Structures are given as structure tokens and as C-alpha cells.
From TrEMBL:
<protein>
    <submittedName>
        <fullName>Acetyltransferase</fullName>
    </submittedName>
</protein>
<dbReference type="Pfam" id="PF13523">
    <property type="entry name" value="Acetyltransf_8"/>
</dbReference>
<feature type="domain" description="N-acetyltransferase">
    <location>
        <begin position="1"/>
        <end position="175"/>
    </location>
</feature>
<dbReference type="GO" id="GO:0046677">
    <property type="term" value="P:response to antibiotic"/>
</dbReference>
<dbReference type="InterPro" id="IPR016181">
    <property type="entry name" value="Acyl_CoA_acyltransferase"/>
</dbReference>
<dbReference type="GO" id="GO:0016410">
    <property type="term" value="F:N-acyltransferase activity"/>
</dbReference>
<keyword id="KW-0046">Antibiotic resistance</keyword>
<dbReference type="InterPro" id="IPR000182">
    <property type="entry name" value="GNAT_dom"/>
</dbReference>
Amino acid sequence: MRAVEEDFLLYLKWMTDPLTMKYWEGMTEHFTYQRVIEEYWAGIREGVIPCIIIYQGKSIGFCQFCILNPQYYEVPAKLYYSFAGRTELVYGIDIFLGETEYRNHGIGSQALMLLMRALFSDYHADCLMIDPKIHNTRAIRCYHKAGFRDLFIVPHRELQDGIYHDSLIMGLKKSKT
């Protein structure tokens, strides 16, 4: 994702779409152009790399990644390190297709696989983690198909529409072959 009006407007479109917001931020969150810009720069300062997913020349979705530590998921270090070794480089990822007509065609899975490949090869990740809300069954199925496994649930982790939701923390280790 570039720091340009075109990308900010596209992200704003997705952040105001009820079908996206149902699983991403919630229906009561109100995004403005200014909020998109502020969150973009806040993420950059925190080491988050935002990306636009392009399929057949069309911008259809969003993903982001960053280096993780136990505090990110608000869990005891012992639980986090039961999956990721203390010296392993762990990246957290988020992904969604904002253009709803591209959902349920395997395109999100393709985008996820490309992101995984890039993180393992170009960014030298040892492990990847992702944190869907437990009610986001479509995303969880997609992550399972890509090889992620359930690690643990963080209760009441994310406030969405006035209700705290549990997050399923899922992980995938780099293949040794």
C-alpha cells in the first residue's frame, strides 16, 4: 500500500463496507479519510507493512504483516513460546478481500499463499501467526487449508460492536524441506 490518495480511498471504501466490517473492525466503527491516513502512519511507525492485493490488474484486497512478540497477542510468554522458539523470527499477518465478488473463489487462499511464501523466503520468517475472531469461520477454514493450525484462544481480546470477542491464534512454521 502506498501513501497516496488512491490507496487511502480504496481502503476507506473497504472499511465502510458492511460485509468487510462484519469481521474486520465491526459495524459500529466509523472510518473517515483522515482516520485511514492516521492509522496508516501509526502502523508504519509500529513496523506494520501494509499491502494492497492485486488480482488480474485490479486492487481487490488488503494484507499487512509485522514482526511479533508475546505482548502483541497479550498472552504469557510461556504460551507464545510453546509454538515459537525464543530465537525464531515470527511474523503476524492480517488479510481480507475487500471486493466481495472475489470471495469464495480461492483468490484469498492464493493471496495468502503468496504472502506466506514471501515472508518465509524474502523476510526469513521462521513462523507465521494470524488471529481471526472465532466467529470468522470462513477465514479460519482458509487458514487451515493453507496449513495453519490452532494454537490457543485469547478470551475477550477484541472489542467489536460493544462486545468482546475471543481470538483464535493460529500458527504455521516454515517447512524444513
